[in-house]
Structure formats: C-alpha cells, structure tokens
Design a protein that fits this description.
Oligomer: single chain
Organism: Entomoneis paludosa
Distance between the termini: 28 Å
Mean pLDDT: 82
Number of strands: 0
Helix content: 55-70%
Shape: flat
Structural class: mainly alpha
Protein name: Non-canonical E2 ubiquitin-conjugating enzyme C-terminal domain-containing protein
Pfam families: DUF2009
Number of helices: 10
Low-confidence stretches: 171-184, 187-191
C-alpha cells in the first residue's frame, strides 16, 4: 500500500501534497532498526519499476520489441511544430493503431506463461503514463525555448523587445518611464515597490534564460529517475 502511494506521487506530483510528507516520515521512522524489530515486519518496499519487474519474470524481450514504441507513444492532438489542432480522424486513427499494437503484445507475451495478459497491459500502460508525463512537461519548455530563439537575437538588442535588466533599489519602471518596455519584457510591474536586483545586458539575460530553459527541459526529462533516487536516499538504512 505504501509503495503504491509513493509510486502515485512520482507520476502525479501535484497530488498528496500533505500526506506524502507524513507518509515518508512514517516510513523513515519504521526503517529504524529498533522500530522495525519491535514491529516484527518492514513497512518498506522498493518502488516497482518496469525493467526489474520484467527481469524477475524473465521477460525482458518485451522491452526490446520494436512494437512497444508504438504502443507507448504519446498522442498529442496538436501539431508539435505549429501548435495547430490535428484533424479528429487523424488522432482517432493513431489511438486505434496504438490499441491494436498493444493487443498484439498482450497476445504474444501474455500467452507465454511468464506474464499474464493483465501484466502486459500494466507494463505498457506504466510506460505510456511515464512518457505522457515527460512529453506534457518537456514540450512547453521546449516551445518557450523556441519562442526565445525565434524572436530574440542575443547579439542585437531591440529597444522594444529588450531583455536587459537594470538593477535599482527603487522602482524605475513606471508606466511613464523611458526605460519601461511597453511589452514589459525587462521590467517589473509599475506597482512594484522595488525594481530588479540584477543588472543583466540583453545578451546576458538571453543566455541566462536560454540556459535555464535548457536545464529545466533536461530536469523534467529525467524527473522520474530523480524521484527514484530521492526515494532510495530518504529511505536508506545506511549513512553515507
């Protein structure tokens, strides 16, 4: 039960905002040797991951089946390059194709005796959920990165589209200020009591934003691995 809750938190970070912390405190206390001995059993169980799950059942061939990529693909109803809505028929065709491939995998690997049909479904759906989480969180960051690269030149500063930050102890970015961009790209709101503390040129701020977006894209792409490492570290019984 506790493992299911931890795994649910990995795929749904916005859930269990208060209960997750309490759960981890409880499990950390239960990992204490004295507490574990008094309980007579352990509350801890490693997170169930797809590869170890298949390794235990000697069915790693499923991970290397080329059809698996189609079965777990993320289906977006918008064109990734233009952002335009795709025809409904096109999306439905992709969903149907994905369903058929999944059924093929279930028939092949669910009849070998190593895995039950529901086990194959669970593996495919787990991978599909993970990929959907990654794609839905990475794509917006990549889109913002594309907007930055398409609309701003780090070598050329346009006064109307400047990213420069000019540090100040007070607000100099009022609506009447000559330093205030009408698009608000480099300014705080006019109601702010203080201006930005950083002093970045247009090129420096461009690089700062570009690097931040690139970093966050990589972080989100590997977020599941980060969660697993954090879980292992929090519930480890050895000190390093």
């Amino acid at each position: 039960m506790f493992e299911i809750g931890r795994r649910n938190k990995v795929l749904n970070p916005s859930s269990m905002r208060t209960t997750y912390g309490k759960l981890m405190y409880l499990l950390q206390d239960a990992q204490n040797p004295t507490v574990a001995k008094s309980l007579g059993f352990s509350l801890h169980k490693d997170l169930v991951l797809v590869k170890p799950y298949l390794e235990e059942r000697k069915c790693l061939d499923l991970l290397h089946d080329p059809r698996l990529e189609c079965a777990v693909q993320y289906i977006d109803d918008r064109d990734p390059s233009t952002g335009q809505k795709l025809p409904r028929e096109h999306v439905q065709a992709m969903v149907e194709g994905k369903r058929k491939v999944t059924e093929e995998l279930v028939q092949i690997y669910g009849d070998e005796g190593k895995l039950k049909p529901e086990d194959v479904h669970r593996v495919v759906e787990s991978l599909a959920d993970a990929i959907a989480y990654i794609e839905s969180n990475v794509r917006p960051v990549q889109q913002m990165l594309k907007y930055l690269e398409d609309n701003f030149d780090p070598e050329r500063e346009d006064q109307q589209f400047s990213l420069a930050l000019r540090g100040s102890g007070r607000s100099v970015y009022s609506s009447s200020s000559s330093l205030y961009s009408k698009y608000g790209l480099s300014a705080y709101s006019s109601s702010a009591s203080e201006g930005p503390k950083l002093s970045h040129s247009h090129g420096t701020q461009y690089t700062f934003v570009w690097q931040s977006l690139r970093l966050w894209s990589k972080v989100m792409r590997h977020m599941h691995r980060l969660w697993v490492c954090a879980d292992d570290d929090l519930l480890s019984t050895t000190s390093s």
